[in-house]
Specification:
Helix content is 30%, strand content 41%. By secondary structure, it is α+β, with helices and mostly antiparallel strands.
Length: 187
């Protein structure tokens, strides 16, 4: 629209003038149009470059479900139900030991978690010196029981955890919801 307006005004102004100023006005309008197109192309190239660099930076971090695969397995035992939480951790990532939590309904208890691997200590910028798991596979295990010793079907359990990439990204805390059948405790 701007170009049409410039050309219209240019033609109207130069209608009574000689052909040289009219030619000059058309060349000027063409030059302005050409320069504005180059400027827009250059800006687009700069934006593409900026976003390409941004995407390259983002792509070095895996989505949380690719960096950490978390699975649960339960097995009835004489002491209750053993809940095993397996973390498959991609190289360059770690899981905070102290961020691993369990939540369950009233009337359900859990023994302290035991771990298949020993944690290593890192100096975390947020939490200070903390234990983390960096191994490829780590299993946390607990025994779930009911306070009355009876079986419970589909008891809801929420597993909370958090992990980070060593390259400088901490994922938000995660929660996994599952249900567990809790076996009768045998004495």
């Amino acid at each position: 629209m701007l170009i049409k307006t410039l050309l219209s005004k240019s033609v109207a102004i130069n209608a009574h003038a000689s052909k040289k100023p009219f030619t000059f006005a058309i060349i000027s309008a063409s030059l302005i149009t050409g320069l504005s197109m180059v400027s827009v192309s250059a800006q687009a190239a700069d934006l593409n470059e900026l976003f390409a660099k941004s995407n390259a930076t983002q792509s070095k971090f895996l989505p949380v479900d690719k960096a950490f695969q978390v699975n649960t397995l339960t097995k009835a035992t004489a002491k209750g139900t053993r809940l095993s939480i397996t973390f498959d951790i991609k190289p360059g990532h770690y899981v905070y030991k102290n961020q691993l939590t369990l939540s369950f309904p009233k009337g359900v208890s859990a023994s302290p978690l035991t771990f298949s691997e020993s944690p290593v200590f890192i100096n975390d910028p947020t939490f200070g010196k903390v234990p983390v798991f960096t191994q490829k596979t780590m299993v946390a295990t607990t025994i779930l029981t009911t306070n009355n010793g009876k079986a419970a079907k589909n008891a809801p359990v929420v597993i909370g955890w958090q992990g980070c990439a060593k390259a400088g990204l901490c994922y938000p805390p995660e929660k996994i919801k599952t249900t567990v059948d809790i076996a009768v405790t045998r004495r």
